Amino acid sequence: xxxxxxxxxxxxxxxxxxxxxxxxxxxxxxxxxxxxxxxxxxxxxxxxxxxxxxxxxxxxxxxxxxxxxxxxxxxxxxxxxxxxxxxxxxxxxxxxxxxxxxxxxxxxxxxxxxxxxxxxxxxxxxxxxxxxxxxxxxxxxxxxxxxxxxxxxxxxxxxxxxxxxxxxxxxxxxxxxxxxxxxxxxxxxxxxxxxxxxxxxxxxxxxxxxxxxxxxxxxxxxxxxxxxxxxxxxxxxxxxxxxxxxxxxxxxxxxxxxxxxxxxxxxxxxxxxxxxxxxxxxxxxxxxxxxxxxxxxxxxxxxx
Length: 304
Ligand code: GLU
Hints:
Layout: E1 3-4, H1 7-11, E2 44-45, H2 57-65, E3 69-72, E4 75-76, E5 80-82, E6 89-90, H3 92-103, E7 112-115, H4 121-127, E8 132-133, H5 141-144, E9 147-156, E10 158-163, E11 179-183, H6 187-194, E12 200-204, H7 207-215, E13 221-225, H8 226-235, E14 240-243, E15 250-257, H9 261-275, H10 280-287
Parallel strand pairs: 3-7, 3-8, 11-12, 11-13
Antiparallel strand pairs: 1-2, 4-5, 5-6, 9-15, 10-13, 10-14
Helix pairs in contact: 3-10
């Protein structure tokens, strides 16, 4: 297994960590509220040596830049989050991005993260602004016309976030006549439109903008993947709650430039290894999204 937990690192931290070029102490403890119980350690990843990916133009670009440039979200706690005070990134997606980097032979700490909102993902990959993208990015056929996907590495479902004291929205059938906020270029906003759930849609660029509007009572609900909404609810449990059953399937993929099948296969190999018994996936989950007590089924990689 190309994986080791940090337990060993912690034991020797008094000795030689500063002399070691690998990722150091588990400073990224996620953004969730601590509950006093011992949080699982953030995993570290062994950096693969002498990786060669013949015929991958994207890998060639990473090599010439010297590190991967990875598109992410930075306002989605638990998934892709940049701490405004420390500048540190944390979350499930961030760890998946680091794990992939290590498997491509790059130090996870060398990643250059770039915030790219939902509506900009395809273009960022097409333009080569990012080498790969890890940010609650649903795999679907429409997007596959422009980009390609490794994965899925997680499966979410569309849900609803409302103010804590709201009693009249308990599911998608209660949205008629309500102001519902979601994000440009996302599958949830498309679903609201396609299914005519409400005609009062507020369309913004990021989910945190929607959540701000919800806090101020300017919208009645925010809709997107349950995994994202749970992160906001966990940050401010006195203000918000996630309600109802999920009403879509959102398999998350790692977005890649469309024609780079060599890279896609390599990333799928890495993801597959992470899903094996004792692999990185479960450890990443436990140290990020799983901290709230949620459990998740491991996805099956779909190669194409
Ligand atoms: N997973 C959905 C999508 O890819 C919603 C989350 C997002 O916008 O990132 O559109």
